[in-house]
Amino acid sequence: MASIGHLMVGSAVGAAYAQDTDAPRPRLAICGFALLGLLPDLDLLGEAFGVSPDGPLGHRGVTHSLFFAAAVALLVALVAWWRRARPGPMALWTFLAVGSHGILDMLSSQGHGPMLFWPFTTETWLFAWRPVPGVTTAAEYFSLHAIPTFLAEAAIFSPFLLYALWVAFRRTQRQHLPLAIGDRRARRM
Fold first, then answer.
1. How many CA atoms lie within 13 A of 109 on its CB side?
2. How far apart are CA 152 and CA 87, in angstroms?
3. CB within 8 Å of 108: residues ≥ 6 apart
4. Omega into 119 within 30° of 0, i.e. cis?
5. What is the per-residue pLDDT across 89-125, written as a single tens digit (0 to 9) for each?
6. Span 13-22, mean pLDDT?
7. How far is the C-alpha of 172 from the C-alpha of 154, rounded, in Å?
8. Which end of the chain is more exposed for a tag (fewer CB within 10 A), N or C?
9. In DSSP terms, which residues pair with 108 in a beta bridge?
10. Which tens digits make up the pLDDT trace of 123-173?
């Protein structure tokens, strides 16, 4: 996948988190979870250091596993607990955002599948139906040939982004609604 879908699905997870926990800053949650959805692709940096793309440390290896998603969720839960926030919801929604990455890559028409169940196996997994177009190399990713892939991915995953935008807009509108007539804050003005 070209990462657009990961950002859009991550933003939808952030919107769901914001609704579930009534987060005070839903836009921040949406952006943060969008980045968490993209986090597993940090393994692409290994190519610059000569890491084999087919091994556990290569692209779609360790960082695309559900084990990695659980480890990141645990780390986020510890930070939430340290900051006196609710660690349970943070861990759950973080696991969903990071874990969705490997599942989405199983829908990609390009490349090998993710090592979803690492460290128990290094077997890669793909769905039989793979409708999401992909790019094969970093050079292709940064070329004009990737534009149709980006557009197709944006169209496929646009409902996730629309949901996130709806939550962000709806929460913002609710905060700016005029106060009700019987509201105590209205009497003080």
1. 8
2. 36
3. 1, 126, 130, 132, 133, 134
4. yes
5. 999 999 999 999 999 999 998 888 999 999 999 999 9
6. 94
7. 25
8. C
9. 132
10. 999 999 999 988 766 667 778 888 988 999 999 999 999 999 999 988 555
